[in-house]
Write a structure and sequence with these properties.
Layout lengths: L1 H10 L6 H16 L7 H14 L5 H11 L6 H8 L3 H10 L4 H10 L2 H10 L22 E6 L5 E5 L3 H4 L9 H6 L3 E8 L7 E11 L6 E10 L11 H4 L4 H26 L8 H32 L8 E2 H6 L6 E4 L5 E2 L3 H17 L8 E7 L2 E7 L9 H4 L8 H14 L3 E4 L3 E7 L2
Parallel strand pairs: 7-9
Antiparallel strand pairs: 1-2, 1-5, 3-4, 4-5, 6-8, 9-10, 10-12, 11-12
């Protein structure tokens, strides 16, 4: 019922502008993929009709990214049929991962476009049993200690089942098994370490088979499984740095020592670039400008490290927390600010909350064009305070996995991973929705 209510709400939006229609389409696709409308056929028909209506207006990359985002072994047949009427490039991510009976495959095939029908026949000839389908076979549902994965031709993992996506999406197998990967050969029980502190952290044994596109035979990446390595009687010792306690005072002292020379480098570079001490050749000014730019990036990283140290130290003044309305209103000159809950308060100290919020807003704005006027809203999503910002147009075609890659617009992927890590440190999170980014911080 919760998804049905959301589906009804999204359908009720006017969505006249192209951007609003793109966001509505993505939201409808994801809601139907999650099962919205299953108990209300009329609501589902309206949603599928709207999806079909808007789809031709959207770029191919947007439709393909949406298909990749929802791809899985089990999806509503009616939604798959809508994508099957599209280009093969759009339908392929869904059809490649579906696990259906013969009748369901026949239903989809009858609704598919001629090009997609030809693709289906190449991958799964008519009359073939489920055990005869060419291509990588799916393992049963992943138990604890086992998960399934796939990566593209670049080696970056783009699909995971049975393990947290955030811990795996974007990691590269090309660097983990370089010789096998370059030769496009299968590999088995390659030991790879998953960092972190969750249930999936630790050493895993990975096995994979190469995948090739039908017809062209072009290399499409790998698919496989990973199993937790059985515990050894005498496990290999971890690197010494992992056993060292975190000394936050020493870390802050190091941050101070880094910040001081960086500030001096930036100042001296600006003097050369601005010719404040006399004329300088253009080549020297250009080089000085590049030094300033790189030093500012490094200084920003140092500031992020300082913020992380303070958040992890737990030394946050007790009290009533920070009032969030004044902190978000300072962005009114760059964003359209809406206070749905003006009384919302965050459990962080005001200075830390302000710095984290500033980092969040700057990262999103850096990926937007000057013409875009994004909206920011403050609301409460118990037990959190929710600060939501519209996704820039350049990011709408990207699913969560693609957004967290290093090569996203303006380095947004790195910033999002950093902000999510900082938010998780204090009990919050960063949620990526089809049309917006939502920073969740603990409320009081």
């Amino acid at each position: 019922m919760r998804f049905d209510d959301r589906l009804s709400t999204v359908l009720g939006l006017s969505a006249q502008a192209p951007r609003d229609r793109a966001v509505q389409w993505r939201q409808l696709v994801e809601l139907v993929a999650r099962g919205a409308g299953a108990t209300d056929p009329s609501l589902l028909r309206r949603a599928l009709g709207r999806i079909t209506e808007i789809a031709p207006e959207l770029p191919l990359a947007v439709r393909t990214a949406a298909a990749s985002a929802i791809a899985g072994p089990s999806l509503p047949i009616t939604l798959v049929a809508v994508f099957a009427r599209d280009e093969p490039q759009v339908a392929e991510p869904l059809l490649d991962r579906l696990e259906l009976d013969e009748q369901a495959w026949a239903t989809i095939r009858s609704a598919a476009s001629p090009e997609v029908r030809a693709f289906m026949d190449a991958r799964r000839p008519a009359g073939a049993s489920l055990d005869q389908v060419s291509g990588p076979q799916r393992a049963p549902a992943s138990p604890t200690g086992l998960f399934r994965w796939e990566c593209g031709p670049d080696g970056a993992i783009d699909w995971v089942e049975g393990a947290p996506r955030a811990a795996l999406i974007g990691q590269s197998l090309r660097t983990a098994v370089p010789q096998r990967f370059e030769a496009m050969q299968p590999f088995a029980d390659a030991e790879l370490l998953l960092a972190g502190e969750g249930a999936h952290a630790g050493l895993w044994q990975w096995s994979g088979e190469p995948r090739f596109l039908p017809g062209s035979g072009r290399f499409a990446g790998y698919s496989g499984v990973a199993r937790r390595r059985e515990s050894q009687a005498q496990p290999a010792p971890a690197p010494a740095t992992m056993d060292l306690p975190v000394d936050h005072d020493s870390l802050r002292e190091l941050i101070h020592e880094l910040r001081t020379p960086l500030t001096a480098i930036i100042g001296f570079g600006e003097i050369i670039e601005g010719q404040f001490l006399g004329p300088a050749h253009r080549a020297y000014r250009d080089r000085a400008g590049e030094i300033v730019r790189q030093a500012r990036l490094l200084l920003a990283a140092v500031e992020d490290l300082d913020l992380a140290a303070k958040l992890r130290s737990g030394r946050m003044p007790a009290g009533e927390g920070a009032a969030m309305a004044p902190l978000v209103e300072v962005f009114a000159d760059r964003l359209t600010v809406s206070l749905h809950d003006p009384a919302a308060r965050c459990a962080l100290e005001g200075g830390l909350a302000s710095r984290l919020l500033e980092r969040f807003v700057k990262a999103v704005l850096a990926a937007a064009t000057e013409e875009e006027k994004l909206a920011l809203s403050l609301d409460r999503a118990h037990p959190n305070v929710a600060i939501a910002i519209d996704r820039p147009a350049a990011t709408l075609a990207l699913d969560e996995g693609a957004l967290l890659q290093p090569n996203t617009p303006a380095g947004l992927g790195f910033s999002l991973r950093l902000i999510r890590g900082l938010a998780l440190t204090v009990g919050g999170n960063l949620v990526i929705e089809p049309g917006r980014f939502v920073l969740l911080l603990p409320s009081v």
